[in-house]
Amino acid sequence: MEISERAKNTQSSPIRKLYPYAEKAEQNGKTVLYVNIGQPDIATPPEAMGMLKNFDKEVLAYSPSTGYYSLRNKISNYFDKYRIDINAEEIAVTTGGSEAVLFSLAAVCDPGDNILVAEPFYANYKSIAQMLGIDIKSITTRIEDGFHFTSKSQIEEKIDERTRAILICNPSNPTGTVYSHNEIEWIVELAKEKDLFIISDEVYREFRYTERDFVSPLHYREVEDRVIVTDSISKRFSSCGARIGFLISKNSDVIEAITKFAMARLSPPSLEQFLAETEFGLSDEYFKDIVNEYRLRKNAFIEELSGTDGVVFPDPEGAFYIIVKFTGVESEDFAKFLLQDFSINDVTVMVAPAKGFYNSKGLGEDEVRVAFVLTSSKMKLAAKILREGYFAYRKMM
Amino acid sequence: MEISERAKNTQSSPIRKLYPYAEKAEQNGKTVLYVNIGQPDIATPPEAMGMLKNFDKEVLAYSPSTGYYSLRNKISNYFDKYRIDINAEEIAVTTGGSEAVLFSLAAVCDPGDNILVAEPFYANYKSIAQMLGIDIKSITTRIEDGFHFTSKSQIEEKIDERTRAILICNPSNPTGTVYSHNEIEWIVELAKEKDLFIISDEVYREFRYTERDFVSPLHYREVEDRVIVTDSISKRFSSCGARIGFLISKNSDVIEAITKFAMARLSPPSLEQFLAETEFGLSDEYFKDIVNEYRLRKNAFIEELSGTDGVVFPDPEGAFYIIVKFTGVESEDFAKFLLQDFSINDVTVMVAPAKGFYNSKGLGEDEVRVAFVLTSSKMKLAAKILREGYFAYRKMM
Question: Per the CB < 8 Å rule, is A124 touching B263?
Fold first, then answer.
């Protein structure tokens, strides 16, 4: 018996596949700086963690399929400051942001349909699409443009008769790009003109280092029934292991469809919904401190690396990632080299080869993704190891 | 813009759709006995709940995609008493048993493929299959046969060129059937003869009221690479809200495929894996007490209801459900009648109409499913309300 084609075609995570090399480096006595994965070292808010200890129910029971009303209500209040008017009935709590993407794609696409996604993109979009029999058509963006869209036609020319939605990640993992007012408007116009949904993954909404206001497709009333926003507490509140995400839609057909999918898996984790409820009650001061911390980390990393011959990167506008081009390397080989053959005072670094974030073959071969998930001094050291490692690697070429 | 066909075709949960009527009954001052849903009132093991309070990590981080090794190791030990030899690498922890079913179906079926399932079956199988573009072909079993298979050919004649797997739920939700040695052997033989996978959902493994040994397809070495067992802590340890399930396969291609799907959703909930680890360490005494409690509930219910003219049911051999036929009723109408128009001392009952558990139109119209999730005295009262309600309903017919 054979496994399914969809299983065969699903790729391994480009973020996780080099772990065996990192393990070996550690066995050889090296310290590895893990900047390959978006697992922040920031503490989960202690007030929220404390709530777990106060949980006093006898039975850990199912929650409603789309989450506790009290949590959905807190989420609805949180959007006030973004001037986005959402009520609890337009929100479905999901098991992580991943399930929000899974349900959104399943609600708007049938097998054989396609969605447009700017590449490089979060690799799991592809795995989720493959699981559902959906194709991804990629709009290639370039490092020289800060991974921004350069024209409306660049997006439009990829639309065909099976295209059902445009999926954006804003601020973007893996590029750190925050889309401009113009870019969002292009997408909004195309959704209207070509009768498409817009799926807007906004898990990094707070993580922005520009002065520009945040623009969501949900700000455009004329397409509000076409927009599905996916979101998560994982990064925002450093609660990755909680597996609490959510999605928003003002389209009642979409919410009804997603409720049916949600019923099929019964409920998201109950206990962590109380954690999330506490987190959405935190003051804005919480975000200020966190975003400032990530800004310092980002700056420490790029200051150390800037001016290096052959090394190209944009200054990330948001999220906590950067794509760095090391001209001439084959990035998976370079990543392995760093883990196997290079260190400074027995410290080395693990990065994610960026080609796994591209859909088009041959792109991103000399790029890596770095996550600002360690302290500023460690990020500075990671940059130094990357620079010196690059010099050493080039000598061998 | 239109939502997807798969979303339109997905049914609402037959277990949950009558809640608005129950809410109204409560608003009218009635007490509702909820025997429609498998949410036990049994306490989650206090030792395991206590573990949540002792959790002292600062960051609630992702776990490995297929779960913590320590939990998988505990699960592997638990299977010793069933004489099933499984190692931690053959286990993947999932977000509830539902995700174990989702991943299993995605791993073995492409869109347009089909699986065989005995009807009546757990309704969420259909929703999950629909999400993945997979068809369900049902093997109809009858209440008069205790919902057992009656011959190998009954199963065989449903197999066609797109059939990829036979899915069984053993002990069965919603019927309470525990398959015999013979029935499992028919399935094992057909898997070999027709080159099929066997997906065996065994979340109720401990819940058996017969003296027969439990037989899993995994006991048959000759098909061990064809078997995927899905499982969950939800019912076994009354931990429905924890969302911890798992699956087992000795086929490395299947485990590799499922690991890729698991990576796409990052990880199951972290905290509850520690809860599950404590639970799998409980002694067999724990199960004895629980199973005995369910046996008492079942007996209280069927003793009260037996001998009622027009009421037909088998004595459930396992799980904690029973399908009851009320000859002549339309069961959804009957369920609404109980909530709206009938009560004894202001107490009424909510049941799940059974037609939602059938794939074939027209079947199960006069059957309901009852879950033994309340104390014996409440189950006895539920049976009394059903009997008297049935008499009252018949008078109106």
Answer: yes
